Amino acid sequence: MEASLDHATGQFTWSATPIGAKRSPNEVPDSALSRAQFSESKYTFLRLVSDLGWPEDHVKRWATLFSAIEDSSVPHIHKKHGWAALMEYLSNVRRAYHVAITEKRGGVNDFSIINLEEVKEILERLAVSERERREDQMAQREASFMRREAALAEQSAVLSRVLSNAPSVRCSSLCLCFVC
Question: Is the pTM higher than 0.85?
Answer without folding.
Answer: no
